[in-house]
Amino acid sequence: MVPRKRTLGENTPGPSSRGPPLIEGRDYSENLENAVILEEIIRRRNVRYNANEIIFQARLNTDGLPDTLRKTPLKFAVKVVRQLIELLIRRCTQDLRLSDLIRFCVQAIGLDKPISTRIMTVSSLTVERVVSVIMRVLQSKDKITLEDGFTIDVITIRQDVGAGKTNTRVVNIDIDRIRKRSVITVPLSEDGLCCAKAIIYTIAHLEKDMKSINVLKDHRRETLVNRAKALHTDAGVLLGSCTYS
């Protein structure tokens, strides 16, 4: 039998398989929590904003991270980048007011220049605003990994408190849900099951049913959707949008 010749690209890994594959849907936040080292490196007066400026630097101790996390190019690890930014926002905004300013600057071997977000108020800060800026650059950089020397500078500008005080509390859902781990986020969906999903989650947490909680959080399964539909059926409520017309 004459062996068949392989054509170019046949049985060779595509770009998404460079490095060990990340497990889709897996939560790496605990790995990152233990690996992130956050240090205050500068504290000074910012003349432009007439405010106190504090710069934090976050770096990763990658020794304890699994290979799938250390060696996978960051352009293929959007969820990991998002979890890392969530972690940094939670740590760096604890003492900030919503009117204070913040900026993220990413430095890594392989970048032509640091990736920097615009300076923004804490009230307008969201995870997606930071992640979108980072991933836009990383899409053309397929060799940057966590183990290559990856640092993030977080510049915070704490503006002086003006005269008078107010008890008004402005809620920024995107930030407050990250700060408070007791807040459970149910992703929006077009199937109109947001409220039902939230009820299913709440029942599982009230009953402290960890097995159900872990199953419901697994996005690879349809368990949460199926239970939400069953709840609609039991309650006699038609599937559809949560809003009133």
Q: Main beta sheet: strand number and arrangement? A: 6 strands, antiparallel
Based on Cα principal axes, name the global outline: globular
State the helix count: 8
DSSP strand content:
15-25%
Topology of this protein?
Elements (H helix, E strand, L loop, with lengths): L28 H7 E11 L4 E10 L6 H4 L7 H15 L8 E8 L6 E2 L3 E2 L5 H12 L11 E10 L13 H7 L14 H13 L3 H8 L5 H13 L10
Antiparallel strand pairs: 1-2, 2-6, 3-4, 3-5, 3-6
How does this model look, in words?
The protein has 245 residues and is an alpha+beta fold. The chain folds into 2 domains: 28-173, no CATH class; 184-235, no CATH class. It has 8 helices and 6 strands. The protein has helices at residues 29-35, 67-70, 78-92, 127-138, 173-179, 194-206, 210-217, 223-235, and strands spanning 36-46, 51-60, 101-108, 115-116, 120-121, 150-159. A hairpin with a 4-residue loop joins strand 1 (36-46) and strand 2 (51-60). The protein is globular and about 60 Å long. The model is unreliable at 1-24 and 163-168 (pLDDT under 50).
Question: Top keywords for this entry?
Answer:
245 residues; alpha+beta; 2 domains
Provide a brief overview of the structure.
With 245 residues, this protein is of the alpha+beta class. It is 32% helix and 18% strand. The radius of gyration is 22 Å and the shape is globular.
